[in-house]
Fold these 4 entries.
Entry 1:
Amino acid sequence: MRKKHSRVTSTVRWIAGPIFLLLALTVMLATTTGPDAVQASGGPALAGRVVDAQGQPVSKARVALYTGGEEPAAEGETQQDGVFVLDLPEGEVSEIRLEVTHPHFQPTTWQADRASLTRLQEGAAVRLPDITLERRLTMGFWIATFTFLGMLALIATERLHSTMAALLGVAVILGVSLVGRPFNEGLFIFDFDQALTYVDFNVIFLVMGMMIVIGVIEETGIFQWLSYQAYRLAGGRVWLLALFLMALTSVSSALLDNVTTMLLVAPITLQIALTLGVDPISLLMPEVLASNVGGISTLIGTPTNILIGSYAGITFNDFLTRLTPGVLLAQVALAIYVLLRYRTEYRAASTKTSPALLARLAENARITAPDKLRKAGTVFIGVIILFVLGEQIHLVPAVTAILGAVAMLLAVRADIQQMLKVVDWTTLVFFIALFIVVGAIQEVGLVGYIAVGMGHLIGDSIVVAVFIIVWASALLSTLIANIPFTAAMLPVVGFLTRSIPGVGSKELFFALSIGSAMGGNGSLIGASANMVTAGIAERAGYPITYRAFLKVGFPALLITVTMGTLWLLIRF
């Protein structure tokens, strides 16, 4: 199975770069051409906005204007914000009727009253009240829904690589939409241009930029050096070493991301564990649990925070100031749990180590490029400062990451072709494909139905809303990888934020952040960092099975999510 996944991953890496560049070019072309909406010329015109039952704009709705004849006198499509503008034809009109249609909604009609007719005949423009469309279930709804569930099942069971599963979902959705539409209009979900509007390229470029930044820093050996210093400070006391390593991975995950942190720290942790004669799992598991929790503190700490921050407009500072106290509370509780859970292994660990092994450990943890580290470190500090100050100077995180990547490459005079290889194109294509699949279930209305159902369950209680979002996110993240789950939940939380009285613009998104990230600790497939760590351990001969991870991780989930929930209730 691992070899099969490796071959798939290699194939995806080869095709990912061209696919990513093609999609980015298509989006740029699409945004320059603009939507198919008729612009007012300054004469009499009708303007309005089309929304769904949750008040969200409906794009690509066809608006046809009739003045008494069978053929429309003017027609156009709503834009991304649901707005349309139609010019009236010249001459006297005694009747004006609008017909609004969309593949996933019931058609509706608006009839101009006498006052509106009078204003239009006088040459004025009339702004209509919002036109609300009611959803309808089509074959496309069920195709998008079952494709999304099938993708989640393939990711959870590891029958296919996650990127391949997401690409398969995109192929099914677009294939059925475009090929099936001529035969049955109900098969249509969305076209290619509209699918790309659901891709959040702020996330894509933020992740890509940070991959380049971390790729340069990784070559200096700083993370291995830090791990070895943690070992030296522990002085042979394994329980203290475990706490140092947890603190190191937690801070590193906040400044980098939890996947990158485990890729860097796990190999040296294995060496330290073998040198001390302790089971490596007893150090790796606390590390990855602390990594998933620590990453919540910043925008760039976890992939789920990147998704949430981009969707809800939550800044680096927002995460840092609002969630860090709760993260520290959860980390203290997690540390106590780890010490109790692994007390037997820590007590039995040998404090007498081979001088030869210690010498090899120190050599492997040596900083290999001190000059590059000084330059890269300076740039990295600048990137963090820009993340903190970016909101004040209107600098979005994606631009900060790209600026940091370019500055890093120029500072160390890196080989650009070599450095682009450190970009995990597989992950970037996974994000793009995931956005499209989640966009499909949003387009057909599944997300809206879920949002309405949760809204009825929650009612007007902010406390109930926080509790349900945190715990539903945490528990479901043990069954579904937290990245696709978070992507699917964003519009649901957005609806709840608008519909519950007294809720601010960010509180429920913070609840989603805590639930999805801490919930990733519940099972092996819950977070990407878990699977990365398991892969490193298995290659070293110490496999972490799904059941073994669940036995340690699920109690950690219950403990940390409880602490996170308490903090949210206190803070908000």
Note: The chain has two domains: 45-132, 202-571.
Entry 2:
Amino acid sequence: MPTRVELDKKEYPAPRGISLFECAEQMNVRVPTSCLKNGKCRECLVEVTAGMENLTARTAEEKHLTGQFRLSCRARINSDSGHIRCHTLKRQQMKIEASSSGLPISFQSIPLEPAVVLDGTRILLEGKQIATGSSVYGLALDIGTTTVVVRLVDLQKGEIVAASAFENPQRFAGSNVMARIQYNVQNKGRLLQRTLTGYLSHVIEDFPVDPMDIYEVVVAANSAMRDIFFGLDVVSIGQKPFHSIREIAVAQGLRKTTAVEITARKLRLPINPEARIAGLPIIGCHVGADAAACLLAIDIQNQNQPILMMDIGTNTEILCYANNKLLVASCPAGPAFEGGSVNCGMPGLQGAIEKVDISASGRVNYRVIDAAYPEGICGSGLVDLLCQLHKSGRISNTGRLVNGSDRFMVDSKAGIYLSEGDISELAQAKGACSAGVRLLLERAGLELPDLDRFYLAGGFARYLDLDSARHINLIPNLPDHRTVQIGNAALEGATIALCSIPQRKMLEKLVLSAEHLALEEQERFFDYFVDGCLFTGPALSC
């Protein structure tokens, strides 16, 4: 009996010697590649979750990979029977939205003043001709540790043309920022940068415009992800006091901004070679350009009352603005709420369980994105599940399953479950967020009742059930009318910066005045963290 290969929920009886890439071709599963199965582009990543022993050993082209990752064109079937389960990195087209709901500002509510304009047939970048043509497009790019999101914008009309999202292929180097930094330092050849730009190139090529008409890309990302993307040395971000080399240069008076620029030619993206790739400024340490982009999205310069913003992700950023003073902090939340470090976790893409309810009889009811076959649970579903498990008495206040089992089955047929180890990962993530909020408010001399608005940002924040998030103490226990879900504010902010040079310049000045609070150095951080890890109902209350 041939070896049974399961790839992205499709199956194929594979004979010995065939590669996983060839199996994918037989199943009509698309695997990214730029080198036509020669092992050179390193883009055809798959994650093998079962049956690794039925594959040939890693080849020289795969020596950069860690964990369960393989290059599908190099990994060949090495048995005459058995079962191999693997999946490609997820990618999907996104629903095109004019703006993020809940935000006090959007890229369409400000004057359209992009850096790139069309003057007759001349293409001008901040007044300098770089090409000729009849169309001008730009990209807003949010590089998350777990997910990468791209918007294509018509810079003449100020309209979104297309959007796409994909799992960050740098996952093979680790699920968190520090692991990526260590990998990037230890491995030469800019493998993380090349892998990401390879995947991004395929997205660009699939957009419904000529890539040569794309003349600027504005990038929002955390400090490490931004600098890796631009090929900068990230050693200093991984060591105390965790400063980017651009921060260090500003502190030494060698630069005026932590923003970074490079041409598309140098980055080898398949857009106009004279196009500018612009990385938004870093605020401080691990509070990066993604948090800076969020400041544009919440119209920070016009906020007259105290506000708090939390952008939940692998590296959660918290920002407090009161009395014209900006305080920022980053929380080592980890990738749990983005689907990483959780056995059946996944990003909020097609096939992810996004909503969970447990009935009085114990029946698990759920909703899947795009009504597809369930493949895993994304962040909003995990928050619901934790809340339901605690409310129904199935987990204790310390996060232990009370029936003595080591896992709770969500769907036995689909093999989707939540283990005690998963619960621990999620508890630590929410504990870090909770501690960060408490410490930042203390530093600002504020209490929860003082806040006019709490902005909740992040890839899955728009779809969070607020009651569930409050119950597990992931977010402050503020009333609904003061809690605003703004979704991917970093992407919206990057789009604002793409469409408005004045907004971009204002942001560069603003971030230089921010005060960064190192949470791990605060005396009460550990106590607050431990409190936040517990499941005792809403704790951060008015």
Note: Confidence is low (pLDDT under 50) at residues 94-99.
Entry 3:
Amino acid sequence: MEKKFKRTTITSALPYANGPVHIGHLAGVYVPADIYARYLRLKKEEVVFIGGSDEHGVPITIRAKKEGVTPQDIVDRYHYLIKDSFEKFGISFDIYSRTTSQTHKELASQIFRTIYDKSGFIEQTSEQYYDEEAHQFLADRYITGECPHCHSEGAYGDQCEKCGTSLSPTDLINPKSTISGTAPVMKETKHWYLPLDQHEAWLRQWILEEHKEWRPNVYGQCKSWLDMGLQPRAVSRDLDWGIPVPVEGADGKVLYVWFDAPIGYISNTKELFPDSWEKWWKDPKSRLVHFIGKDNIVFHCIVFPAMLKAEGSYILPDNVPGNEFLNLEGDKISTSRNWAVWLHEYLEDFPGKQDVLRYVLTANAPETKDNDFTWKDFQARNNNELVAVYGNFVNRALVLTNKYFDGKVPNAGALTDYDKETLKEFADVKTEVEKLLNIFKFRDAQKEAMNLARIGNKYLADTEPWKLAKTDMERVGTILNISLQLVANLAIAFEPFLPFSSQKLRDMLNMSSFEWTQLGQTDLLSAGHQLNKAELLFEKLEDDVIEAQVQKLLDTKKANEEANYKANPIRENIDFEDFTKLDIRVGTVLECQKVPKADKLLQFKIDDGLETRTIVSGIAKHYQPEELVGKQVCFIANLAPRKLKGIVSEGMILSAENSDGSLAVVMPQKEVKPGSEVK
């Protein structure tokens, strides 16, 4: 039975205030959330759209230390840059606030304390690295050392960026504090944990049985986590930047950023509606919808609901339409490599063309799988769809009306069978677009809306009113009346998707009021209604403009390659005898699987010619396990065994690293006998 709700609370993932936002963020989260919010407002539904910046956590402290400024300086800089970018792209938040606000600090502390007083956390004491010179415990990223896997220097306490292996700080050889440069010591520290394992039974029922309508990528990731078994998760950490843990004996400890950040949705709502915020978060008749990227699915579907359930008075999300990732020109978007299209730069390079990007990102939305943005596709969709279909139809209808009827909507005379057929074609558009928007299929909904323009273009091309003007002006009036009704429908249908263009089109139509219920009607503009001056809705993008953007990316790639070469120069010469100490062989992959709770590790069973050996390799981000089964790989056979995530690894698979950080496993060109030596 379908649930009936009085209102909808829409949230979009809080961008991390550690840098600007790029097209991947826009495509994955903010444009779809904005489309949905605008759609519900057009339907006159009660809705609030909440956004804000995530401003706590270790990366911000690291950036501040590197730049010699305070963490507050960092978050202030990027909060306002991000907020400005969103405003200029028409992301229609009802509020865009931040997690450093006083309202947020108070509410996050209150929620923690409520759960704490209900014995909803468990306390655990463990040993962690401590910098005696700096007098502080060290987050994983504040510890570096030699990677135990590939033996490169500078590996972090959570990951070796050279070989991609997930690490714990205690795995590092000769660890050092990045703060003082001294060797840290192990020291006991107490933390609080959310016992997710105690919530597993109801989460399994709530997600797997009660929310089978969720997107398959969201549902599948949740099922995978639940099937692996949930574990307690720390909600506090030793840090001086964040919200202090509000209990006695917690000096020097703050709320872990993953715990504090989602509460920002609630605190921002409270900031917007100080006296009525609870109805959006505690009334069972309120619907909660989270828009996120796939890296946040677990937090919003498992962790945050467990927090809300433990607190006891909040509603749980009704849907979490999480998107996959958007790639750029075939490569993964990377902020560290500057491989991105930054929103603030796009606004400078393409003034007034926010809707073009909104359209292309929605057309290529990574709704259930990763998708790719290319500048050539951007140009093609602008020129062949927005200009040649949508803009062309609008311009012809308005220009012809101005030419033959002084810019006034003509009367519609008797309808031909073809007129009736055309009207029938677009009469059901509202139902179809609405159906798709209701199930978060924004890409298909936009495509359906564009079909209105295609119908209009074909109608004008087939009826040729410019020829009839010589003999039958009454018929011309009918054709243009029908065309203008279609144009008015386009202004409504595209309002959620292309708000700037819809506003411009309504101005041209002199159409002040509009709402969703009018979509599909054929009397939106009355006869005699005066239109305003027609302008081009979209402009063609020339090759040189696009080539400049492609060149910018090529320059970035070249700079990355040069930087990578400088950072990884050819090492000092070694003696031949040193090389011969390495026993490199070819093995056949018999089995390959992901290592549970380690998203970068794959576990191999390899036929090495004599027996079967196990090797753990940090390449899960670059290969699916099934891709490698049956393949032959090169591996170091005489590397001392060591444990990774409790698995004894008996060797190391060789990979080549591209300048973008992607890895390619080294394989022989021709099949050889397992155990063959590489010389």
Note: The mean pLDDT is 93.
Entry 4:
Amino acid sequence: MSTKNIAIYDTTLRDGAQAEGVSFSAVAKVQVAKRLDEFGIAYIEGGFAASNPKDMEFFRLIKKENLKNAKVAAFGSTRRANTPPEEDKGLAALLEADTPVCTIFGKSWLLHVIEVLQTTPEENLAMISDSVRFLKEHGKEVIYDAEHFYDGYKDDPEYAMAALKAAADAGADCLVLCETNGGALPHEVAEITKTVVQTFNVPVGVHTHNDGELGVANALAGVNAGAVHVQGTINGIGERVGNCNLSSVIPNLMLKMGMICLTKPENLKQLRALSLFVCEQANMRANTRQAFIGDSAFAHKAGMHVDGVRKVSHSFEHISPESVGNKRRILISELSGASNVFLKAIEMGLEIDRKSPEVREVLKQLEQMEKEGYEYESADASFQMLIKKVLKRHRSFFELESFSVTVEHKGAGPGCLSEAKVKLSVEGQSIEATGSGDGPVDALNHALRDALSTFYPTISDVVLVDYSVRILDPEEATAAKTRVLIESTDGDKTWGTVGVSENIIEASWEALVDGVEYKLFLEEEKTKK
């Protein structure tokens, strides 16, 4: 396939914001737009001009920014039935948004024309042509989104094509075929898109949804059939189960199909960082299993796979992780082999011989710990502590002398009061500290930090971001063994730790201590460099 340019049209700030649980402030939308521009996206759809004041505030704010690569688009609909374009409030709002590009959607499916709009097929065509012509007369680049096009084409191809012709004859700069319900199959999208491309002398785009888990596949099928414009969202967020995922479309187009999608191809290495930034601005957790950029995208667990990757990376990796800003991860579990341990030790900066007895000792210890209920896939930091102990390269930054926790509920007042006391030995000194919190583990965490803060001030940088408990033998009821996983971060690095015990407080303490010690090891390594 010959190389060609594909215009990427990002609608994260409009269609993506329609996802359940996602909301961007006007300021956050500006920050995301600036990041998309830096990445090299061609079009950024800022919002529905006639929808809400927040979107109009975005259009006002974004004009103050000096975007270098992207054009900002305002989204709206064709004029209302039996309303002149000069009197239509939606079209007026598009002009008020004052963006260089206006994207309007219109109906292509007779079902929607008759049952939803409740107008005539002829009036719908007039609504399309009048709206496009009106915006062109005001100097706008007009992208026409043919809503429900593929369903409309399958129902009545002649009318669906007539709707496109109305937009094209009125001067539309791009005809975007929308697979709005997300139920079409790739071969259908390919065949219909090819017909449109061969019929019109206007650039054709595709806008797909993911209801059948085919949003990305359908977008690629559309490009393969001649489309030169792809609409979607970062991380695939959007209405219902989501839109076409640009975080997958872009690397597929560039790395697999040889297309040019970004102003600078090297910007592809910023893809993961962009994905995480959008998650942060949308206040949502990143999908660890997301293709290309998720934490698990290049995570290897089975010993045979790890050995293969160690010898020839592309034997088990379809692309280089670094090409999209990701990295390889070696997981540790009961499926681990010597290669897992060896590469994990290298990752930690430890010099070790893959065939040494130490590696076998780590595997033996790992097997024993997993029998006891420990799990290290999500607890890299605890595993690193385990390796250091087996290799006798571990040093304790403090020793526990004792801890106690009390939980008290007084009368009819709200909630419980939790207090923890810890006694540690640090550099030969006995230190006592007390902490209170929302629960016993929170109180322990505060007490531990307070006790160590004088000796290790950087401990104050560490915060707990997740705490989870799993019952390992539920048949034992309240006497069951529990596994506690804690995720911690210092704002720069995130790590997981694990603790196991019949006593949930003891398991939590073990995970807390590993998390703190890991941070102190990181600081120690910094001072050595």
Note: The chain has 17 helices and 16 strands.
